[in-house]
Q: What sequence folds into this?
């Protein structure tokens, strides 16, 4: 079972307490009505599925109930780091440093 | 006793005989035996029939790698465990087991005709044969396959045993208590930190239990083991767990351990759970899981009496049983010799050592000579004979690439074989540790770790007692060295899986996977038919797919495929190891979560009253809800008709406490509601309610419910019973991640409030005397109003709402007052013949009014337009969750399924929910299905059935006739409005 560090609780807790919530850093458009059908479809349906570093959202459902972001390696299935919503996407350097 | 037990040898207690029964016959064994060793002691080799060809099969191995000897372990009704390996079943007095997969008896199996006709059962046979004709599948193929090709039947009676689950934590977890594991534990015990040492066998020790000649630090192996185990027992930080299998290795050093507690005990001795599943987090894992000997692949290698050399060695040295009196060794590996020597020293005759290699170590040959054993270097085996037990082996000289067709047939009663060793990397692979190929061992060994884990000893490809002890101690944090005397060398050079033959290989049955009956020619055929990856070859031939997951067969299969493909093994791939390591009972996995503890049952505060008053319950999400309240002699139909009538005519009382409830509070609460729901909220007055419709961002209906505004900054939101957690999570998601600037707080209040719904023309009259501080007259407290007040002196939130179409009120009181208020209202309501009703009547009443149930009349692809609920969308709103999607091309396109009412031509016919709808009755099958029935009930009030349905373009088809095809008839119905009862809504206005 994966151990996940909740950046709000600052604790490593078992995966059971968390729920996955899709790809991170996909902001809802400010004014959806101004978007073309294609643009809206892209926002709604199109997601990355990388081999390697993935930015994703989790929610500490059976804990603080807060959403947060995580960097997970989809090959090793290991969490590289977690960080709060609203924080910048970590740089490749930071990720490389945390991975080692 | 009999000829095969060797007096004074082995670790079984030869002073403690026990009786057991196999296939109805009674035998004697000793305390410490397994079923397999005890059967062999009695000269019984034939213990089962094979999976596909029903060939007679014996015992292949001595441990959990056994592929053939699967038996049904029978402890009486509900306690029959099928497919238990006879080699791991500990003997006790009164043990009863049966062979499997035979009909009518083990010795005469009718279906072994499959073997005679085996030319018709090639690789991919199931895929090829049973495809056509389609109609044969259900009636002919499937039942026949089930009857003849199954493993043991699953027990039908309920399992009366108890199982437990618990967590454990330690700094060091060691899997496998062989020499490497024990050395690791001894070293780890001296450090700070908790140590758990597990072993799947009853007795820890692994190979030390079957190598009595070995010496460690001047002590015989068994004595060193006893001393070490004693030390570990005494160490306070060590937990030693025998009979415990590490079944899976998961993320972050989390392992599942299945501990068997009672299977080895006599009937009546067991006290407590049968098995316990530990979930363990360990800081460091040391895998000392050993290696599994590989069979050799030659014609007739599956005959009873043909077994692994190491198994024969274990049966002799650990159980005191010689597997035969005249034994042939077939080997391509040095380690087989010691088994032959041990047997020779125990007075079995070794008729020959047939070594397939062109050269063999001279010392080994000298040792053999000393014992008078002939060694044939560069010979092969081309056949065996014997019906229920091997009686001879045919051996031929190999000259270069040529096999001399003139063979010699040697009479024997057992054949032991050694094809090298396969490190047990299963758990390592579960943890996603990588593997590398070692040509010298012809095996994969651990490479890069993915977790904090290390492999030591044979499972790391480090063979030999000395290296096992040293690497084990090292991994445990020590640097001990050991003085080791080992009788036989452990070189594995030149391991060879398939023996050369002069015979036509396409006609030879040389088995690779014993449990799934896969032969070398099956694998070659798969390659000829174009399969290149081992993953595909595995699935096509089923090699490695049996309950043993190919423990003894995977590498042989891989090398045969590699040779057939003329590609290096590393390019053929490796199949994935998956948990569990060995078959695990469902009981162990279920643990305590059986019966009443299977799942959470949520009960309202009024549930007890419903139970006392004879309610029939139904599960709704995790809740149990009263479905109806039958009176004497009533069935559901009659009870529902009575409850409906009483509610419409006078007064019904309903427990609506399960409704999801969320309080939305804060200065930006109205703005937040505007964004989350389709409806407008800004102008909703304090003290008023509105029906709210919630969409997903994809535009489809997600939830609904009545929402009351208690104050400018406070909304009391209700959701569907099952949708509450989903809706709260959805709201939190947007609030936290999209609009953190909004000052809003969300609180689940579902369990804080009990909700009593009163519906019917006398509802107001009933509650009026109990309500303080609210003028309930229609003008002062109109439909869709809400007030905070006191009811019966208790703080309450009083809603005037109706899900039935009648004058209705919902009284929310703190949950612990729920039952008291219910009882007071029920007493007072007797003057109006108050009638409690359940969810069934709630459904009928709402369907008569055309009110939807989200999740029943919608299915995640229904928009507000489809549901005929455009009225719920705030026309002036510029954005809400899902709004943009309502303009997507697919959503505005013609032909979408839309919600309509259905009126059957025969008013007495009630449609089946889920039934398909067609436009014309006389179409060929498959018909053009245009929709389906979503809700359907008998309406006592209207004297006819009512139904809702989703029908393509349904809104434009009012008045059209549709048909509902059923197995026995075609039902005709008309598309009508969704409202069947009181279309003007006048009944809400009863004074
Ligand atoms: Zn948290």
A:
């Amino acid at each position: 079972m994966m151990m996940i560090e909740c950046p709000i609780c600052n604790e490593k807790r078992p995966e059971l307490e968390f729920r996955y919530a899709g790809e991170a850093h996909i902001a809802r458009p400010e004014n959806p009505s101004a978007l073309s059908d294609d643009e809206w479809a892209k926002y709604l349906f199109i997601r990355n599925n990388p081999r390697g570093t993935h930015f994703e959202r989790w929610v500490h459902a059976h804990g603080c109930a807060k959403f947060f972001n995580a960097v997970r390696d989809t090959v090793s299935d290991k969490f590289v780091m977690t960080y709060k919503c609203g924080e910048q996407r970590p740089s490749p350097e930071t990720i490389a440093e945390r991975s080692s | 006793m009999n000829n095969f037990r060797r007096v004074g040898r082995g670790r079984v207690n030869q002073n403690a005989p026990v009786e057991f029964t196999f296939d109805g016959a009674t035998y004697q064994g000793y305390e410490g035996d397994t079923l397999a060793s005890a059967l062999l002691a009695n000269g019984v080799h034939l213990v089962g029939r094979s999976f596909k060809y029903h060939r007679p099969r014996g015992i292949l191995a001595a441990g959990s790698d056994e592929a053939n000897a699967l038996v049904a372990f029978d402890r009486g009704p509900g306690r029959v465990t099928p497919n238990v390996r006879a080699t791991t079943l500990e003997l006790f007095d009164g043990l009863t087991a049966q062979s499997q997969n035979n009909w009518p008896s083990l010795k005469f199996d009718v279906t072994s005709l499959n073997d005679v006709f085996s030319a018709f059962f090639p690789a991919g046979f199931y895929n090829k044969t049973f495809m056509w004709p389609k109609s044969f599948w259900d009636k002919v193929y499937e039942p026949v396959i089930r009857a003849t090709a199954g493993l043991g039947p699953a027990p039908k009676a309920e399992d009366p045993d108890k199982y437990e689950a618990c967590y454990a934590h330690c700094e060091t977890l060691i899997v496998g208590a062989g020499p490497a594991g024990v050395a690791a534990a001894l070293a780890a015990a001296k450090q700070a930190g908790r140590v758990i040492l597990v072993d799947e066998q009853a007795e820890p020790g692994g190979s030390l239990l079957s190598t009595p000649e070995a010496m460690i630090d001047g002590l015989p192996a068994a004595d060193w083991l006893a001393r070490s185990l004693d030390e570990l027992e005494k160490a306070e930080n060590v937990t030693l767990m025998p009979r415990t299998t590490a079944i899976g290795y998961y993320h972050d050093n989390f392992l599942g351990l299945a501990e068997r507690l009672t299977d080895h005990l006599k009937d009546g001795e067991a006290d407590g759970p049968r098995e316990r599943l530990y979930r363990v987090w360990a800081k460091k894992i040391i895998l000392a899981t050993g290696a599994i000997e590989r069979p050799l692949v030659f014609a007739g290698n599956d005959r009873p009496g043909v077994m692994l050399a190491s198994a024969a060695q274990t049966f002799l040295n650990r159980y005191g049983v010689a597997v035969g009196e005249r034994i042939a060794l077939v080997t391509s590996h040095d380690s087989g010799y010691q088994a032959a020597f041990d047997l020779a020293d125990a007075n079995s005759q070794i008729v020959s050592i047939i070594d397939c290699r062109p050269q063999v170590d001279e010392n080994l040959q000298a040792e053999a000579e000393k014992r008078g054993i002939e060694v044939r270097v560069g010979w092969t085996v081309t056949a065996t004979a014997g019906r229920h037990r091997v009686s001879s082996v045919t051996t031929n000289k190999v000259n270069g690439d040529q096999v001399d067709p003139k063979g010699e047939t040697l009479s024997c009663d057992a054949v032991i074989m050694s094809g090298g060793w396969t490190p047990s990397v299963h758990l390592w692979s579960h943890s996603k540790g990588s593997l590398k190929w070692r040509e010298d061992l012809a095996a994969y060994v651990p490479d890069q770790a993915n977790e904090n884990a290390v492999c030591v000893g044979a499972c790391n490809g480090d063979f030999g007692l000395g290296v096992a002890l040293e690497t084990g101690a090292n991994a445990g944090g020590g640097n001990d060295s050991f003085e080791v005397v080992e009788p036989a060398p452990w070189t594995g050079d030149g391991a060879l899986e398939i023996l050369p033959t002069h015979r036509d290989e396409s006609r030879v049955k040389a088995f690779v996977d014993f449990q799934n009956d896969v032969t070398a020619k099956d694998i070659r055929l798969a390659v000829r038919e174009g399969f290149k990856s081992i993953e595909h070859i595995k699935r096509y031939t089923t090699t490695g797919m049996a309950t043993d997951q190919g423990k003894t067969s995977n590498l042989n299969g891989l090398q045969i495929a590699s040779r057939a493909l003329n590609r290096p093994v590393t390019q053929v791939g490796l199949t994935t190891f998956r948990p569990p390591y060995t078959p695990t009972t469902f009981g162990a996995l279920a643990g305590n979560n059986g019966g009443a503890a299977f799942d959470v049952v949520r009960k309202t505060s009024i549930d007890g009253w419903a139970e006392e008053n004879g309610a029939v319950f139904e599960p709704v999400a995790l809740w149990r809800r009263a479905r109806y309240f039958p009176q004497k002699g009533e069935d559901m139909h009659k009870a529902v008709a009575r409850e409906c009538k009483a509610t419409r005519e006078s007064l019904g009382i309903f427990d609506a406490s399960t409704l999801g409830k969320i309080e939305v509070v804060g200065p930006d609460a109205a703005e937040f509601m505007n964004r989350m729901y389709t409806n407008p909220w800004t102008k909703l007055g304090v003290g008023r309610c509105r029906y709210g419709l919630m969409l997903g961002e994809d535009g489809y209906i997600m939830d609904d419910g009545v929402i009351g505004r208690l104050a400018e900054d406070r909304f009391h939101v209700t959701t569907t019973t099952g949708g509450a957690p989903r809706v709260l999570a959805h709201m939190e998601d947007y609030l936290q991640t999209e609009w953190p600037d909004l000052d809003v707080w969300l609180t689940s209040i579902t369990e804080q409030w009990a909700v009593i719904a009163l519906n019917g023309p006398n509802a107001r009259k009933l509650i009026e005397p109990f309500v303080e501080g609210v003028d309930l007259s229609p003008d002062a407290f109109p439909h869709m109003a809400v007030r905070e007040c006191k009811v019966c002196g208790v703080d309450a939130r009083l809603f005037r709402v109706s899900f039935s179409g009648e004058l209705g009120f919902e009284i929310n009181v703190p949950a612990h007052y729920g039952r008291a208020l219910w009882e007071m209202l029920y007493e007072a309501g007797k003057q109006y013949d108050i009638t409690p009703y359940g969810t069934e009547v709630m459904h009928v009443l709402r369907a008569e009014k055309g009110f939807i149930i989200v999740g029943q009349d919608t299915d995640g692809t229904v928009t507000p337009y489809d549901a005929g609920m455009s009225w719920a969308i705030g026309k002036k709103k510029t954005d809400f969750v899902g709004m943009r999607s309502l303009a997507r091309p697919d959503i505005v396109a013609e032909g979408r399924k839309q919600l309509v009412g259905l009126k059957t031509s025969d008013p007495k016919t009630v449609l089946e929910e889920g039934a398909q709808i067609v436009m014309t009755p006389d179409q060929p099958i498959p018909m053009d299905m245009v929709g389906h029935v979503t809700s359907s009930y008998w309406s006592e009030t209207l004297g006819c059935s009512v139904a809702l349905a989703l029908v393509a373009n349904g809104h434009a088809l009012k008045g059209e006739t549709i048909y509902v095809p059923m197995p026995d008839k075609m039902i005709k119905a008309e598309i009508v409005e969704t409202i069947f009862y009181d279309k003007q809504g006048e009944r809400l206005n009863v004074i």
